[in-house]
Amino acid sequence: MTTYKGFPKNFMWGGAIAANQAEGAWNVDGKGPSVADVASYKPHLSVEDYAGHVGISTKMIEEAMADPSDRDYPKRRGIDFYHRYKEDLALFAEMGFKTLRVSIAWSRIFPTGEESVPNEKGLQFYENLFTEMKRLHIEPIVTLSHYEMPLALSLKYNGWYERKVVDYFVEFSRVCFTRYQNLVKYWLTFNEVDSINRHPFTTAGIIPDRCPEGQEDQVVYQALHHQLVASAMVTKDCHEIIPGSLMGCMLTKLTTYPNTCNPNDVEITLQRNLNNYFYSDVQVFGEYPILTERILASKGVHIRMEPGDREVLKAHTVDFVSFSYYMSLTESAEAGKERTAGNTIMGVKNPYLPSTDWGWQIDPVGLKISLIELYDRYKKPLIIVENGMGAVDEVAEDGSIHDEYRIQYFRDHFRQMKEAVEAGVDLFGYTSWAPIDLISASTSQMSKRYGFIYVDQDDLGNGTLARSRKDSFHWYKKVIETNGEEL
Ligand code: BGP
Question: Is residue 48's pLDDT more than 60?
């Protein structure tokens, strides 16, 4: 009988970033505009509004394209990782990173998505990046689609709604697999594939005012189907082009608790949990869960499938399951119960949990529960590819940053991870979000900081962009050095 003690020997410790939140350089070296480049900085936009699809309109996109600045569009600016990646990788290497999760900006490779020849400068950038990572013994985990796609495809096809986009994505992915076959072994298709329901523009380029009246759900689920089919197709290509490569799905894990033991609360919670599993179920089991299909049909959503779609889904499932974990949720069937929002997701306030400044409920035990549930359900190797705490950091006079709250957050989560591993869960890695401060996905703020490394830039883009080590930098270094023994 195997007994499990501590983290596995080759545990992949590291961090995760995304091109659209880190690279900047949004219009250099032939890059085309992406949906992320027109997502504006709107501090007044409440999370409820964001979740309610009003985040973008054709008019806002036109205004954004007419405005060359980056002040109101911070994702255009990022933290200039495009030019400073060597310096940043050196800092990650200093912490002892075994891995770094990054994404490829599709619009660097195919500026409008429809070119017949890829943009060499874009391809070269990622080749340089992965080569440098290899040199530093940092294994890349590469997401093909992390909240961005060429804006031209979004405008022309209402994002992933039209089937044509599947072909373009498959071609883009093939180009990446071919070019980086000797550099990248671990791949992910869509970041938080379930998030298409919460922010369809960032996830899938869907512009709400271009959806036929009353057909928003139909458009979203059709687009999702296209993403799921595309995922399966590129999984096939990945395995063929890069022997030994591994493809994962990526889910926002939203473990949900019933507010009380009232069976009505338990039932609504069950629905939420099943809904959360729906996306990864398709990618792991290769078929739509029957209950979800029936629920969608009863809501008038009918997914158009092409001949062969079901077979493709079934034949090319993922090798491992990756997920982000920031919080648990609590659900209640009671009408009018006060609700709170974190990460654009609504739920009832859980009185047992503290929250971050942005209302995200901190629940380390929920991470252990999620790991056990996921492993029990899928029996596939797991990796946590996002987890972290957004906070406002104060820089002391001498430049130091004492972020004990962040250390505490990670320590509590790592203890639970360790217990899950000791309970038998096959967890092979962990990448924190984000090891370096970058632009927040949901708020476009810079002041919502996640990093072990501080970046001198404010919400409006002022600052030197200089990097400095926070206290958590030294702490995480020790964690990696001792493979999680010293927390
Ligand atoms: C996830 C996204 C990331 C990241 C993170 C933190 O949902 O995959 O891109 O940004 O959340 O969210 P935020 O930046 O909104 O604080």
Answer: no
Q: Rounded CA gap, 47 and 300, in Å?
A: 27
pTM: 0.96
Question: Strand 12-16 relative to strand 427-433: parallel, antiparallel, unpaired?
Answer: parallel
CB-neighbour burial class of residue 352 (10 A; exposed 0-12, middle 13-18, buried 19+): exposed
CA distance 392 to 403: 9
If DSSP codes are grouped into helix, strand and coil, which group holds residue 384?
A: strand
Ordered DSSP codes for 287-353: S--HHHHHHHHHTT------TTHHHHHHHS--SEEEEE-S--EEE---TT--EEEETTEEEE--TT-
pLDDT at position 51, please?
43
Look over the chain and give the mean of its residue pLDDT values, rounded to a whole number: 94
CA atoms within 13 A on the CB side of 23: 26
Mutate to test the pocket of ligand 1, among 254, 442, 443, 450 (most ligand atoms within 8 A of CB): 442
Instruction: Give the atom of ligand 1 at the shortest distance from the alpha carbon of 191.
Output: 8
Task: Give me the domains of the chain, ranges plus CATH numbers.
Answer: 12-481 (3.20.20.80)
Coil/strand/helix, residue 251: strand
Tell how far the Cα of 200 is from the centroid of ligand 1, in angstroms.
15
Q: Determine the 3-state secondary structure of 426 from DSSP.
A: coil
CB 74 within 8 A of CB 439: yes
**387 CB near ligand 1 (under 6 Å):** no
Cα–Cα distance measured from residue 186 to residue 392, given in angstroms and rounded to the nearest whole number: 33
Pairing type for strands 345-348 and 339-342 reads antiparallel
- Positions annotated as catalytic residues are 386
Cβ 442 under 6 angstroms from ligand 1? yes
Confidence grade of residue 176 (pLDDT, cut at 50, 70, 90): very high
Q: Which atom of ligand 1 is nearest to the CA of 360?
A: 16
459 CB less than 6 Å from ligand 1? no
Q: Are 141 and 431 a contacting pair, CB within 8 Å?
A: yes
- The finding on whether 440 has its CB within 6 A of some atom of ligand 1 is yes
Nearest to 337 by CA among 255, 392, 260, 435: 260
